[in-house]
């Protein structure tokens, strides 16, 4: 590993272990060596990455940015090395995959079926749930999730696809209640709300063409709450109200005219608008060729859907 990679690894480990001494033990180096590597990195970057005290180290603003990028770079380096080491290994065995119910049924399962035809020696175990599964305790190899980028450093995160949502309703509903032209008008409408485990109940809207990222937040008063997006779609089609639903669920219904979308000049989401579909797996799975094969296969074929 070059000096810069060694310095980067020492910095990341110091942050993860919350101190130079603990990082040194993990890296099997002297504490002074770890300190010198981090000092050298800060000098090369021309900025301070860590706030140091006698009790702990904390990230500076620059350190926060560099830390997340350094994790990605180091993981990519490790993955490149491991790809060379196991080129001749034939993938086999169980692959435990967890995913949200509707996304899994409609988008992921057809891709899994294709994958199994190609790699007959890999046996798939599927867990469908809209609850956020505990990957470690459930011994999950790969979890598919929708949302902002997870910040858990013990997990490896790969973006599968971008993700967007539409505000949709039936023509029969809009003909009676009118079509909102601005998020602020949603308070006058019947709304159908997805029940998130974290209690999120707001819908956030950002104008697509605005020079500044102004966010309009709506707190709909729902006449239905459900923890399954397919249930909400059926309610929308029956004219019961407006729902904020994912693109992969409603695009077909929109194309055939079963439902209509409104507020199309806005990006919308119940969380941050920086939302994607991710594959997440523990660090101890990163050496498994079957994990990498599936994620590459998923990324390639998800875009084709």
From TrEMBL:
Residues 3-60 form the HTH lysR-type domain. PROSITE patterns: HTH_LYSR (PS50931). InterPro entries: LysR-type_TF_proteobact-type, LysR_HTH_N, LysR_subst-bd, WH-like_DNA-bd_sf, WH_DNA-bd_sf. The keyword Transcription regulation applies. One of its GO terms (molecular function) is sequence-specific DNA binding. Coiled coil: none annotated. Keywords: DNA-binding, Transcription, Transcription regulation. GO terms for biological process: DNA-templated transcription. Belongs to the LysR transcriptional regulatory family. This is HTH lysR-type domain-containing protein. It comes from Glaciecola punicea ACAM 611.
């Amino acid at each position: 590993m070059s000096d810069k990679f060694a310095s980067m690894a020492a910095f990341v480990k110091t942050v993860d272990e919350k101190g130079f001494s603990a990082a040194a033990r993990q890296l099997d180096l002297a504490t002074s060596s770890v300190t010198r590597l981090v000092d050298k990195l800060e000098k090369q970057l021309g900025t301070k990455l860590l706030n140091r005290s006698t009790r702990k180290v904390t990230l500076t603003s620059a350190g926060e940015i560099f830390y997340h990028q350094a994790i990605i770079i180091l993981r990519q380096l490790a993955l490149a090395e491991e790809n060379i080491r196991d080129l001749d290994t034939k993938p086999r065995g169980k692959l435990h995959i967890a995913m949200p119910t509707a996304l899994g049924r409609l988008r992921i399962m057809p891709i899994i079926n294709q994958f199994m035809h190609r790699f007959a020696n890999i046996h798939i175990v599927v867990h469908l749930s809209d609850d956020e599964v505990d990957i470690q305790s459930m011994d999950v190899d790969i979890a598919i999730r929708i949302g902002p980028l997870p910040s858990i450093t013990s997990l490896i995160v790969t973006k599968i696809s971008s993700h967007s949502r539409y505000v949709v309703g039936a023509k029969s509903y809009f003909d009676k209640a009118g079509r909102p032209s601005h998020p602020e008008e949603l308070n006058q409408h019947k709304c159908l709300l997805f029940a998130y485990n974290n209690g999120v109940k707001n819908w956030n809207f950002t104008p697509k063409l605005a020079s500044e990222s102004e966010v309009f937040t709506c707190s709909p008063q729902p006449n239905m709450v459900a923890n399954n997006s397919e249930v909400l779609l059926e309610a929308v089609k029956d004219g019961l109200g407006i729902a904020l639903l994912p693109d992969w669920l409603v695009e077909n219904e929109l194309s055939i005219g079963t439902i209509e979308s409104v507020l199309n000049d806005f990006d919308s989401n119940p969380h941050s608008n920086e939302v994607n579909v991710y594959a997440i797996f523990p660090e101890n799975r990163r050496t498994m060729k079957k994990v990498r094969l599936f994620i590459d296969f998923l990324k390639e074929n998800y875009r084709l859907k």
